[in-house]
Design brief:
single chain, mainly alpha, Butyryl-CoA Dehydrogenase, subunit A, domain 3, two-stranded antiparallel ribbon, two-stranded antiparallel sheet, 25 helices, 10 strands, 5% strand, binds heme C
Length: 512
């Protein structure tokens, strides 16, 4: 069902329009007890005229003449408020603010679920819970925060508020490292490091979540992707700078500097790779690391985690040293035909559009299936003049339907292994006897999750996703055989994962 912020505003009885609601949520103060996030429209005065003109002419929301004549406020390297950038770039800001809208596609987009706001969680709308709908996900994450709350992703406007209110926050204490990807944190990192962004990054990673959250106020904003003077794309996140350096080193290129050496086309993917990637928190300092030192493929990351003996948690029902994969869109895309053809994230998720009398990159980042005419047709109609948007959508859904079937089969196999391990434990088998099956669970689970957590339902690299699911299924079934036959030798070496180290608790800077 289509539910836009507009219908929400109506449902809530709030006289808010997209621009206004978007601006309100995009400037939410961190952790403030809000009555209703959607009704908070007092702050961003800049958007008022926009809301009005949006009403009159939805497609054209240029500012009123009076506003255009005022000299816009300067944009400096400390301006993280997108509304301030919006005074100079009203069309971009208006499109960016539309990421509050929620609309479902067959497998993607997002579906809005109204909820009654509370003092603790001010959200009046959330996205659908995936973990409540899928017993397999719950089984695979037993003992880990994701079993408590895991929802479908939604627009950038919600990135800050959703990280603060996820049920994972009450399940376990989270580090400040979340701020890298859920907030406009460039200015905060720079301030914390007295001008040295990497130093500030290190400081914020190691803070308890609430301390770091106090330092930020917006979700991903203009300053996180753009140079403030030239508007050129730039990478602001140390974790990506370091991740790419490690990746390039594995390919024989030393001291790679993404901001100096990447082409503009590469930057159109790298700005997204600041966040849409697999990661882990390394050691006591909870450093945010992208595990690419051996390459971008799932087996490269599995090998790295095995080598350093890393586990995200110990599976509660089986004792397996488990891994959690997170949104590897960049890694998966890099294995697909579009990456091979030089087509980047921005080509599909931020296509050029005509809006407000200008031709701009669409800053309404969302599912391209809601925008096929702009996102796909420009390219594909060049190669096939007869192709229609409907035909392209059908092709995507055919890929996704096949993908989903295989994903279900792999999930069934994994749950089968988990059930068998539980039964073996109940029958009195000890960890030594279960080791092979536990290791196969670790593998089957990471491979399946790598594909599950990747948000395109197979589209970004269909064959690669199918290969990974096939391997996952194979590992799960081999784990089951190992439980039945102690002499069985799996096709991969079983790696010993040492017990997890006891990490010191996160310490609030105020207490230091
Ligand atoms: C050739 C076009 C194309 C390219 C290139 C591309 N995507 Fe996608 N992306 C899609 C399609 C199609 C979907 C599926 C959307 C759906 O199911 O509604 C998708 C889904 C997604 C989703 C989930 C969206 C949702 O609605 O839940 C995210 C996040 C995403 N892509 C990020 C990226 C990133 C990051 C990159 C680059 C590393 C990238 N995409 C490259 C076409 C593309
Ligand atoms: C490397 C970047 C990165 C880090 C670090 C990160 N996230 Fe995310 N997070 C994302 C991206 C990208 C999405 C959207 C794609 C998705 O949902 O899979 C997301 C989605 C979410 C969501 C919405 C979907 C869901 O899972 O329910 C929540 C909540 C969330 N993250 C919480 C957190 C918390 C809490 C932390 C810190 C422990 C954190 N994230 C750390 C990038 C990151
Ligand atoms: C600073 C981190 C960050 C950057 C940079 C970033 N994203 Fe995201 N993105 C997120 C998070 C976090 C979410 C999930 C927000 C939530 O669910 O609350 C998300 C959600 C999305 C979605 C889902 C939207 C929907 O309606 O379901 C898409 C698509 C997407 N991002 C694509 C991109 C693309 C393409 C780029 C690069 C042009 C990009 N993102 C850059 C963090 C980021
Ligand atoms: C997630 C990254 C990201 C964020 C956040 C972002 N942009 Fe962009 N922006 C891009 C990309 C990608 C392009 C295309 C640049 C290119 O190809 O050289 C772009 C292009 C632009 C351009 C050049 C003209 C055009 O439309 O191509 C302007 C101006 C601009 N953005 C303004 C803004 C403003 C203002 C904001 C905040 C309200 C913002 N951007 C937020 C990624 C981002
Ligand atoms: C900038 C150009 C460009 C854009 C934008 C683009 N594509 Fe493509 N697409 C290509 C190219 C090039 C290929 C590879 C064709 C070949 O080599 O056979 C391709 C291949 C495909 C394939 C075949 C995939 C496969 O794995 O065999 C599908 C399906 C597809 N595109 C769908 C889409 C959809 C849907 C969108 C919009 C979300 C889109 N494309 C956007 C250029 C583009």
């Amino acid at each position: 069902m289509r539910m836009s912020s507009r219908s929400y505003a109506a449902a809530l009885g709030a006289a808010a329009l997209t621009g206004l609601v978007g601006a309100a949520i995009l400037t939410l103060p961190a952790l403030s007890p809000l009555g209703d996030a959607f009704a908070q429209s007092d702050k961003p005065k800049a958007s008022k005229h926009r809301a009005k003109s949006t009403k009159a002419q939805p497609a054209k929301a240029q500012p009123a003449k009076a506003a255009a004549q005022e000299a816009p406020p300067p944009i400096t390297d400390d301006t993280d408020d997108p509304a301030v950038w919006g005074k100079t770039f009203p069309v971009h800001y208006e499109l960016y603010s539309k990421t509050v809208d929620m609309e479902r596609t067959k497998y993607g987009g997002s579906e809005a679920e109204p909820r009654t706001p509370t003092q603790a969680d001010p959200r009046s709308v959330v996205s659908k819970s995936k973990v409540e709908e899928d017993a397999g996900l719950k089984a695979m994450w037993q003992g880990y925060a994701f079993s408590a709350d895991f929802r479908e992703d939604r627009g950038h406007a919600y990135a800050n508020i959703d990280q603060q209110n996820t049920g994972r926050q009450t399940f376990a204490k989270q580090p400040g490292a979340c701020m890298n990807c859920h907030a406009s944190s460039y200015v905060a990192m720079k301030k914390q490091g007295d001008g040295d962004v990497t130093k500030g990054f290190e400081k914020m990673n190691a803070m308890p979540f609430p301390d770091a959250a106090k330092l930020v106020s917006h979700p991903v904003s203009c300053i996180d992707c753009h140079d403030t003077q030239t508007m050129a794309l730039r990478v602001t996140r140390p974790a990506l700078i370091e991740g790419l350096r490690a990746l390039k080193a594995s390919q024989g290129i030393q001291n790679y500097d993404v901001n100096k050496q990447a082409s503009n086309q590469e930057m159109r993917a790298y700005v997204c790779a600041q966040c849409h990637v697999e990661y882990y928190f390394k050691g006591a300092e909870r450093r945010l690391v992208f595990p690419w030192a051996k390459g971008l493929k799932v087996e490269n990351m599995q090998a790295l985690y095995d080598e350093i003996g890393f586990r995200d948690w110990t599976h509660k029902d089986t004792g397996a040293p488990a891994l959690k994969a997170q949104h590897p869109e960049f890694e998966m895309w890099s294995q697909g035909i579009h990456a091979r053809a030089g087509v980047t994230c921005s080509d599909c998720h931020m296509p050029m559009i005509k809006h407000g009398g200008q031709t701009v990159s669409d800053h309404w980042v969302r599912s391209p299936l809601l925008n096929i005419a702009n996102a796909c047709m420009g390219c594909h109609s060049k190669h096939d003049a007869k192709i229609t948007a409907k035909e392209l959508k059908d092709r995507v859904e055919a890929i996704q339907d096949r993908h989903w079937k295989l994903r279900e089969d792999a999930m069934q196999a994994l749950v089968g292994l988990i059930d068998d391990l539980k039964a073996a434990k109940a029958a009195g088998k000890g960890d030594a006897e279960l080791k092979t099956a536990q290791y196969m669970q670790r593998r089957a689970q990471f491979y399946l999750d790598f594909v599950e957590a990747e948000n395109s339902t197979g589209f970004h690299a269909p064959q690669e996703a199918a290969r990974i699911l096939g391997e996952s299924l194979n590992y799960a079934r081999q784990g089951q055989i190992a439980l039945r036959d102690a002499s069985f030798k799996p096709t991969v070496a079983v790696v010993d994962i040492p017990p997890p180290p006891a990490l010191p608790p996160l310490v609030s800077p105020a207490a230091k």
